[in-house]
Specification:
With 451 residues, this protein is an alpha/beta fold. It has three domains: 195 residues, 3-Layer(aba) Sandwich (Rossmann fold); 78 residues, N-(1-d-carboxylethyl)-l-norvaline Dehydrogenase, domain 2 (Orthogonal Bundle), CATH 1.10.1040; 126 residues, 3-Layer(aba) Sandwich (Rossmann fold), CATH 3.40.50.720. It contains twelve helices and 15 strands. The strands form three sheets. It has an eight-stranded mixed β-sheet, sandwiched between helices. The protein has a five-stranded parallel β-sheet with strand order 10-9-13-14-15, with helices on one face. Helix 7 packs across helix 9.
Length: 451
């Protein structure tokens, strides 16, 4: 039976060595030991696997999320995790050293507090810091002497100073002496089992040398490699570079796909050939767009910050514009393919195979499939989707879709291959079925055309 511990009694594990530091008189002194080694604030696609990794490594974990629905999904084991993390979740839920709670006051009981909340952008591509500000406010409010406060959510350069370092200093705690403030961006690839989470190096910067060392010790609690950098800003910018690099190269791959189509070439053959070069080249695949919590959002935090100082980043801006336009390009291509076959988009029946943002996950965040479906519906097409991982989807305006159980009975005019899940079954399609492959990985059929 799943356990949700909210007791004020410490978990039954020996306490780690106390953290020294003499706080100012205005700050409440804590006992010499903490009840938890680490508190994870935010239990989404990053926070929950991180909490499980710490618990698996032997830490006493306080797992905090303000959403009762999310906590219920976790205790019910109905969360989107890779098999290894599902096994870890089963173990954690039966262990008193793993405590789930929605009570932010419990933060003061943890020796280290790690913020893992989402940092999305709004419909105008402006950073939405609502969740991050709320989480950091709660962390600062309940911070006590001896704690490490670490931000891992991807954000703008200077955010850790604005939302943690400055407020905690104004509270009367001295960074590097009374508390320790650091930034180490998350590095989690949802749904991927290729590289174990523990084997992914963590980059960390601290507000002082003492903060850097304390943060490195905490990260070493589960990660095998910790790379220290010189400042909070360096660590923050590192994450922005990682995801901007991917965004620019994906935009380039999409552009090359369109160029190859105009020459009558298969872009996948070109990419495979270029990939034989053992230096100076890294393959990126084109697709119907980019989803998830990183590539569609993170570069906009940098562009947003640069606008304040009137600094231009034309390569990044052009790449993000191309990525933003990709779903509309898919719809235009659907219209073109239908027209070439003598059919109209108005009244056409379009079935989308896979709508999660990447294969083998249930994650719909920023999925281009949602915009594609929305645009198709607005243009008068009848829409449906097949996705074994996504039981329902809500489009802009509140239109709710449920998956098509029998694709053949939907009688699609055109099938769009969007997300190639392992479970994707195309055997139901007739030989004459019109198919548009936006994955560049689809199974060849007589009437299949590429995006």
């Amino acid at each position: 039976m799943a356990l949700m511990h909210t007791s004020t009694q410490p978990p039954a594990r020996p306490a780690r060595a106390p953290i020294s530091g003499a706080p100012p008189a205005v700050v409440e002194l804590r006992p010499q030991t903490f009840d938890f080694d680490v508190a994870i604030v935010g239990l989404g696609y990053v926070g929950l696997p991180t909490a499980l990794a710490y618990h698996h490594a032997g830490s006493r974990v306080l797992a905090l999320d303000i959403s009762s629905a999310r906590l219920g999904a976790i205790t019910g084991r109905s969360v989107d995790l890779i098999p290894r993390d599902h096994t870890r979740l089963d173990s954690a839920l039966e262990d008193e050293a793993f405590t789930l709670t929605s009570d932010a006051t419990q933060i003061s009981r943890a020796q280290a507090v790690i913020v893992c909340v989402p940092t999305p952008v709004d419909r105008y591509l402006v950073p939405d810091l609502t969740l991050l500000r709320g989480a950091c406010d709660a962390v600062v409010q309940h911070a006590v002497a001896g704690q490490l406060l670490m931000l891992t959510s991807t954000t703008y350069v200077g955010c850790t100073e604005d939302l943690l370092l400055g407020p905690v200093t104004r509270k009367g705690l001295v960074p590097g002496q009374d508390v320790f403030v650091a930034f180490s961006a998350e590095r989690i690839d949802p749904g991927s089992e290729t590289v174990p989470q523990e084997a992914v190096p963590r980059v960390v910067g601290g507000s002082t040398p003492a903060c850097l060392e304390r943060a490195s010790q905490v990260l070493s609690g589960y990660a095998t490699t910790v790379h220290q950098v010189s400042s909070l800003g360096t660590a923050e910018m590192t994450k922005l570079l990682e995801n901007t690099f991917r965004a620019v190269n994906i935009a380039l791959a999409n552009e090359f796909a369109d160029i190859c189509q105009s020459f009558g070439l298969d872009v996948t053959h070109v990419i495979d050939a270029a990939s034989t070069k053992p230096y100076g080249y890294m393959p990126f695949l084109p697709g119907p767009g980019v989803g998830g919590h990183c590539i569609p959002c993170d570069p906009h935090y940098l562009l947003w910050q640069l606008r304040k100082d009137r600094i231009e980043a034309p390569v990044i801006a052009a790449a993000m514009q191309q990525i933003a336009n990709r779903p509309a390009h898919v719809v235009d291509r659907i219209r073109q393919v239908l027209s070439e076959s003598g059919r109209s988009l108005l009244g056409a029946r379009i079935l989308v195979m896979g709508i999660a943002y990447k294969p083998n996950v249930a994650d719909l965040r920023e999925s281009p499939a949602l915009e594609i479906l929305q645009r198709l519906h607005q243009l008068g097409a009848a829409i449906g989707y097949v996705d074994p991982h996504v039981p329902s989807a809500v489009l802009e305006g509140g239109m709710r879709l449920i998956p098509v159980n029998d694709p053949a009975s939907f009688r699609p005019t055109l099938v769009l291959l969007h997300t190639p899940h392992r479970e994707t079954d195309l055997h139901w399609m007739s030989a004459g079925q019109l198919v548009l492959d936006a994955t560049y990985q689809g199974t060849s059929t007589p009437n299949q055309v590429s995006l």
